[in-house]
Amino acid sequence: LPPPSLVIGLRSVRGLARWPLPPGISLDGRDLLAGDRAPGYTVLAYGCADSFKRSASLRALVFCGDPISRWLAARRLEPRHLWTEIELRAEAAGEGIELWHAQLFPVTGSDALGTARLHPLTSRGNPTGALQQNGAPESQQQNRAAAAQQQNAAVAAQQQVRLGWLVAGLYSADAAASSCEGCGQWTDEFLRCTRVSIAQANAG
Q1: DSSP of the chain, one letter per residue?
Q2: Average pLDDT over every residue of 52-69
Q3: Measured on CA atoms in the order 46, 49, 52, 58, is the torsion positive or negative?
Q4: Which phi-psi region, left, alpha or beta, contains residue 64 (left: φ > 0; alpha: ψ -120 to 50)?
Q5: How confident is the model at residue 54 (pLDDT cuts 50, 70, 90)?
Q6: Taking 50 as the threshold, does the pLDDT of residue 119 lie above it?
Q7: Residues contacting residue 36 through CB under 8 Å, at least 6 positions apart
Q8: Residue 66 bridge partners (DSSP)
């Protein structure tokens, strides 16, 4: 029998249904609240045969069921995009390398996942209550607030789709070869986005 897939903690992430999970690949949604980062959310993707212990070398490391060399080549990435120079020097010196420290997992803000209220903002960055000071009729204020809320909701929905597509590209080379409406190519968006490692996600 093929190894089972597992899905934990996913919420409000769109676009994943287009890229079904291969056998043995799991998704693990995590809230990120610790340290000096703004609150956010990420989805870890990993395989049951991945290198969860320190690997002797990059050549021996496996991620999402693939040797990391094959995984990187399929996504036009290099080890320097995932690990620090210090970590890669240690690997080159024969000291091994950790999948746990690879910056692999895209992060989205909490607003994009619906975990914080989306406030329509004025140019000063204050909630729409500030509009009441400019003398506009209440109906205009309500219309502006509703329009801003709709715009925020549309932006949040697009961020959800983008996160789902970026996560799918971790386990699907086909997803990584695709583009997303309103975004660029997967590799470009992956390199542009904020990412965390498994170690950072485990820290909260």
Answers
A1: -PPPPEEES--S--SGGGSPPPTTEEEEEEEE-STTSPSEEEEEEEETTS--S-BSSGGG-EETTEEHHHHHHHTT--GGGTS-HHHHHHHHTT--B-GGG---EEEEEGGGGTSS----B-TTS-BGGGGGGGT--HHHHHHHHHHHHHHHHHHHHHHHHHHHHHHHHHH-HHHHTSB-TTS-BHHHHHHHS-EE-HHHHHT-
A2: 96
A3: negative
A4: left
A5: very high
A6: no
A7: none
A8: 63
Strands 25-32 and 6-8: parallel
- What whole-number distance in Å separates Cα of residue 187 and Cα of residue 173? 11
Catalogue the long-range contacts made by 118-127 (C-beta closer than 8 Å, 24 or more residues apart).
118/149, 118/152, 118/153, 118/156, 119/152, 120/144, 120/145, 120/147, 120/148, 120/149, 120/151, 120/152, 121/148
Q: pTM of the entire structure?
A: 0.76
Task: Give the residues across from 8 on adjacent strands.
Answer: 28
Compute CA distances 185 → 45, 56, 128, 155, whole Å.
Answer: 20, 32, 36, 19
Diameter of the chain measured on Cα atoms: 71
Contact, 146 vs 154, CB < 8 A? no
